[in-house]
Amino acid sequence: MAIGMVAVGIVWGLYGFIIQPTRNRIETLQRLIPEKQDELRSMQARSAEYLALRRASESLEARIARQDADFQLLPFLESLIEQHQLSDNLITMEPETLSAQHGYSETIVEIGLEGVALRHLVDFLEAIETSDVMAQIGSLYIRKDAQDATRLTSTLQIHCPRVDSEGASPPPAQS
User: Fold this and answer.
1) pTM for this model (two decimals)
2) Which structural domain range is residue 24 located in?
């Protein structure tokens, strides 16, 4: 009987100190595996998003750097306005230069057009967006002309980023 009690004590001790804690740990790990898999998928998605944004940023920086150093947005827009026969409709054209970061600046030209046909405005905007220069439309406000409902009055801002050659530093190296 004493041997039986010792055997029961050993089995109970093994179960209480080894088997039960191991089973509890396995149950905990099985519960954590799906959570960690979700975290892994989330991190992979964020990594892919970061890489896509990084490639887009590098592409944009390369396009800005390829742009002619002597390029001026105002004369470019003036020539587009003449090409699209909008000179008579031009009421304002105000340039402004912003230095956003060390080595980078942005030229913004605000253009006011009055009494312009929708087709002419769309052609002008398309010419800006499809040009080889890094100009893009930042904001666009359109309303019907007060005198002629078939004509439009529009205010738009054209943005053109550039790399300043003096003081420009290369982007930090990525490891």
Assistant:
1) 0.60
2) 1-66
Element (H, E) at 117: none
Say if residues 153 and 143 touch (Cβ distance below 8 Å). Answer: yes
pLDDT tens sequence across 66-119? 777 778 888 999 999 999 999 999 999 999 888 766 777 888 999 999 999 989
82 shares its domain with 148:
yes
The residue among 43, 66, 89 that closes a domain is 66
The contacts of residue 147 (CB under 8 Å, 6+ apart) are 115
Is residue 161 a contact partner of residue 104, using CB atoms and an 8 Å limit? yes
26 shares its domain with 77? no
Question: Closest by alpha carbon to 107, among 57, 140, 73, 131?
Answer: 73
